[in-house]
Amino acid sequence: MSLGFERAGFEVLAAFDFERRHVEAYQYNFHQTQVIKADIRDLTATNILEVCNTKQQIDVIFGGPPCQGFSVAGRGLVADERNSLLSEFARIVCEIRPKAFVIENVRGILAEKYRNILSQFHDTLATVGYRFIPTPWTLDAANYGVPQRRKRVFFVGVLENNKLPILPEPSIATHNNIVLPTVEDAISDLPELEEIEYLFNSDRYFGELGNPSLYSARLREPNLDLTEARKQKFSFAGLGGCSRTIHAEAIRQRFKSTLPGASEPISRFYKLDWKGLAPTLRAGTPSSHGQHMAARPIHPEEPRCITIREAARLHSFPDWFEFYPTKWYGFMQIGNSVPPLLAEAVAASLKSVL
Q1: Within a domain: 117
Q2: Is residue 273 part of a domain?
């Protein structure tokens, strides 16, 4: 979300997250933003505005309260304690009173059983003068230039006399009835890993990349989104997120025999199709909720799961963007994030009316 809002012209002053490794990854990529490890339940407007260090009215507060409690892929429990963080988000907005707010979550949050939670959320904000887009936006990342089928809900509200934004205009491109960009556009220029032994012990690839598509060329562009602070910080030595996974030979054989666009029968892992889109990349669950790693797609050609960098490409992250190097946290950070191209579309729509 931060990268998308930056691209749309916002200056992100402060960020907050409860997980240390996510804070570390965020700080590495966003040097100009103050990032604090904190539980939102312990934060107040005073805490946040001190970190922001500005006397101007805040334009927007955006975020994504944990979605697993609302997810149809999970248990979807009304009593999940993470669901209460939606009301904490509302409390912070009421205390700071920005011109607007944006919340992203899974479509499951619109289920009937969560009506009371959403009603309380709306009532809290309405009492201090917030108006909402009439129907939450349900947006598919594939309609905004991301090679992934990923539908998410966005709640957008504005304070008092500010204008409500309109639905972001989709930017769908097709060729021969194929939606672009495809999996091939996103990752076909990345290295074939089967013969690169050192990537079992390192996440950084040192070598040439293949010929880029229009999509991957933009993600490889050295100056994309790079501020002077980032240029000074990053060494640009190698490409991160490329570590290999050790699969048993029996699993490799099952992956080989699975057709592109189908799911492997035992693991249920989806095998990517070069000419198709990726399925929704999911985050899994943290250690506090069972520590289950989400299923990762199988590479279209090689008998292995995709790497963190391949997942980042399928999510529209540029190559300079770094994730926590372990697969567990790297994939969780990607699966929990809003694809930057989709976030940019939402942010641009909001910026046009502020």
Answers
A1: yes
A2: no
Which residue(s) pair with 105 in the sheet?
153
pTM of the model: 0.91
What are the start-end ranges of the H helices in the chain?
A: 2-7, 20-29, 45-52, 85-96, 115-126, 183-187, 214-220, 228-233, 249-257, 308-314, 327-336, 340-351
**Does 146 map to a domain?**
yes
C-beta atoms surrounding 175 within 10 Å: 8
Catalytic (active-site) positions: 67
Token pair recorded at residue 34: 């103050």
Query: Which residue, 244, 339, 344, is CA-closest to 296?
Result: 244
Range of the domain at 31: 2-172+339-351
Residue appearing with tokens 């407007």: 45
For residue 212, give both structure tokens. 């880029």
Q: Is residue 234 part of a domain?
A: no
Each residue's pLDDT, cut to its tens digit, for the chain (354 residues) gives: 999 999 999 999 999 999 999 999 999 999 889 999 999 999 999 999 999 999 899 999 999 887 554 554 545 444 445 457 898 999 999 999 999 999 999 998 888 888 888 999 999 999 999 999 999 999 999 999 999 999 999 999 999 889 999 999 998 888 888 888 999 999 999 999 988 999 999 999 999 999 999 999 999 987 778 777 677 666 668 899 999 999 999 999 999 999 999 999 999 999 999 999 999 998 865 555 445 567 899 999 999 999 999 999 999 999 999 999 889 899 999 999 999 999 999 999 999 999
The CB density around residue 23, as the number of other CB atoms within 10 Å, is: 17
Q: CATH code at 346? A: 3.40.50.150
Tally of structural domains, the chain: 1
